[in-house]
Amino acid sequence: DIEVIVDIGIPNFFTPNGDGYNDTWDIPFLNVEPEAEIAVFDRFGNLLTRYKAGAGDWDGRSDGREMPSGTYWYIIEVPGIEKPYKGWVSIKR
User: Fold this and answer.
1) Which residues contact 81 (CB under 8 A, 6 or more apart)?
2) Dist. CA 8–CA 88, nearest whole Å
3) Which residue from 27, 58, 60, 82 has the least number of CB within 10 angstroms?
4) What is the pTM of this model?
């Protein structure tokens, strides 16, 4: 078997401070994969948000509340790619 690894360039931080620059967690590759599903968790494993890539980027909120600066964990499932992408992203405010 041959395993193909696709690097989709997932940013590891964003700064949702309202200055208009880097305010959302934008994963450019997912612009062509609108059915990809992104789930973001806090350090305790609590689900903060789950959304489809075509619905937009994560703005650092959960249930309307701004999440504090810190590290969050994600799972990204892309149709046609068997293994989900897992990792972390930091919010810097």
Assistant:
1) 6
2) 14
3) 82
4) 0.90
